[in-house]
Amino acid sequence: MKLSDFDFELPEHLIATRPAVPRTAARLLVAKGDTIADAVVSDLVDFLRPGDRLVLNDTKVIPARLTGVRHRISAQGATQARIEVTLLEPRSDGTWAALIKPLKKLKIGEEVVFSDALRASLQGTADGQGHLVFNLRGDDFDAALNAAGAMPLPPYIAAKRPADAQDMQDYQTVFARNKGAVAAPTASLHFDDALLAALSEKGVSFSHVTLHVGAGTFLPVKVEDVTTHKMHSEWGRVSAQAAAEIAETKRTGGRVIPVGTTALRLIETAARGGQITSWEGDTDIFIYPGFAFQITDALMTNFHLPKSTLMMLVSALMGPDTVRRIYDHAIRAEYRFFSYGDASLLFPK
Prior knowledge:
The protein is α+β, with helices and mostly antiparallel strands. It contains 9 helices and 17 strands. α8 crosses α9.
C-alpha cells in the first residue's frame, strides 16, 4: 500500500467552515456494500434497527488555543512579543505540553500573559513542544481558560477564519462530559437531543466511551509505505459497563456502530484479544486495509482528508475500491467535507 493510494482531488469550495444548522440538517451518505443512498442526518433513525448500539465518544474539547504576550527588559529597553499557544495535554509533572509559536521567542522561565487572570511560564522544551506551568489549577484554571481561550479549530478551518464565540458551541458534542480533547470527535457533532431521543424510542441503545482526541489527528502521513507510519497516541477509556453493553449487543445479534473514527479505534483497541473488555490507557492503534475488525459492524463518520490515516481506516472497513466510489459520489453530489462537513454511514459487505 502506497500513500498515493489514499489520495483524491477535493474542490476547495467543499471544505466546510461552519456546520449545518440545525446539526441534524447535515447530509448523510449511506453506503451498504456497493449501494449508495443520499439522506440527511435526521433520517438516521430509518437506517438503524432495534437492538443496534451506537458507541459515542463523550470527550469534551477544551478551548486550547491561547494568545498572549511575553514581556522582556533588555539592553534596548522594554520589549514584548505576541505568543500563540495550543495546549496539547497535561503532563504528570503538572505542566502542560503545548505548541508554541514562535517557540524561539520564549526563554526558559519567561512568562506569557494571556489575560488578567491567566498566565504561564516556560519550564522546558522537548520534541518541538514547550512545557508550560500555569498560575492557576483546578476549577480556577478551567474558568480562566474558558474566558481566555478559543476552540482549537482544525488547520484547514483556522486558515480560512479565526475561531469565535459560536465555535464554543458548534465544536462541542451535546453529550460531552470528560474534558481533555483538543479536537472534536466530529461525527458526533451531528447529534442533538431530539435525534438521540428518536433513536432511543426506535430501540437503539448507546454506550459512552472516552478518547481524548489530540492534535496529532491532523498530522500528515509522510511515508510512502503507509505500513511504516508511526501513529500518535491518545488516552482513552472503555468502562466495564460500556464493555459489557457492547458484548451483550454482539451476543444478541445487534450491530455495534461507533460514531466516529475515535470511538472505533478505542473499542477495537479494547478488543484486541478477540473480545471487548474494560480498558484504559494510551492507544496508538493504526487501522489500514487488512485490519481484522473484532467489534465494529458499521461506522458513522465525516469525510476525511486525502492521504490521512482516517482515509486508511475507512478503506480498511469498506475496501479501498468502495471508498473511492463513495468519495467520487460525495464530490459529484457536493457533500461538505471535514470537521464541520456532512456525514456518512458505512455498512461493510
